[in-house]
Here is the input.
Amino acid sequence: MSVSVLFGPGVPDDPKPREPESFSDLGFDQVVESITSELDHYELAPFFYTPLKTVDAIKYRHAVLRDLARPDVLAVVRDFTAAMRKCRADIDEAKARHYVLQRQAWQLAGIRRYCNAVHRLCRSLGDLDTGSDGLSSLHAYLTHYRASEEFEALDIGARNLLEQLADVKYSVLIDGNRVRVGPYEGERDYGADVQETFNKFRQGDAPSHLAKFSDYADMNHVEAQILGLVAKLNPETFTTLESYCREHREFTDPVVGRFDREVHFYVGYLDYIRPIEAGGLRFCLPTVSAHATTIHATDTFDVALAHQQAGNGPIVTNSFTLTPPERIIVVSGPNQGGKTTFARTFGQLHHLACLGLPVPGTDAELALFDHVFTHFEREEELANLHGNLEDELVRIHDVLAETGPDSIVILNEIFTSTTLADAQSLGSKILSRLIDAGALCVYVTFVDELSRIGPATVSMVSQVDPTDPARRTYKVERRRADGLAYAAAIAEKYGLSYKRLRERISP
Here is the structure.
């Protein structure tokens, strides 16, 4: 039975092993690195590399996230994953130990912890009445699994062995360098007698003179020999232990192990955005549509930047809307004004949306895409015999060749190495190709004229403080780009406006 909390029925489970080329430009590589760095065991990165291709697949994940938004459900999941981590730690200890009987003891402890975790998860999911198909199908599977002969043999066998081992009693007689191990025959505990005798002489918190045993994980050779003799005194119990451990070297059920891995995709991301939310920023589950016409997001932001700045001051949010026939946002304005951050945000929004994860913002309606293409300015490499302009043209040609109506293209500060006239001419041709392809696009540029190509383009401009044009507000607002407002503000600040100049030169 195939049960997954990430992939619904009929959805291919084939996460990409390689990071998409757009990740570095979008800053999404930082997001994935932060989430997965503490979760290496689960190999989560491929899940973040692989956007979903259908709206139903996204809704499947949204339903699981709505369950996990409930504190009681999330607590149950965290309890299970914590138990599984301890289980793996027990098995790692077993593999690291030198003596066979000690390895078997650690393995038995890990199995018992695993069985308890399965029992608690199944009971809790049944009590919680979860609404998602992902967690409901998991509960149905666990109910069947717990009743199976395989699990009962694992579970009951572990409990019986622990009870038998707890009943093992023996005596150790130490005479100089000789150690004798024998069956326990009701001998008195002389250590307790001695302690009771001397307790009446105790005054205050006298220092303890009791011997302390080492806390080393490995037994020493004396302890190992004593345990070996105990095993000989109880052959039936220890023979059963050996047989049980040999039979259950691999005991984790594939579906249970898959859930333990997959649920960390959600939990890891929720933990990542928690400090951002604590700072007052909002996330939402977006509406995602195939061949979407209207695109919008309210109070959105660069999630990688917000995570870096969490607790170190406010993050500026921005909003945007595209309605038919609008498909392209042309962003202009002063340098260092938040234009590139806005472009990255647009790409991050769509990638997160198609992962089925919450996106930054209070409300969003986004598009299902086939590819996200990015083209950001790069420094010229001395080893490259081509110039910057030629390299940019080659790269953009490759992007345009693969762009279709469901593609997202983000172009950031390209053609800065050429003249204004050439940048305008090349930019116009590229935008015309993108309009013909029907792609969604954000184009960050210093060429204002590109925002007025036609009804498919929308102008957004990064703003400055009207009273201090040198101070950026990092707000990117929808308005006509004319390049004059910023220039006029600078001129006024430095006394270079027409009025001020007339005043200064008037006799």
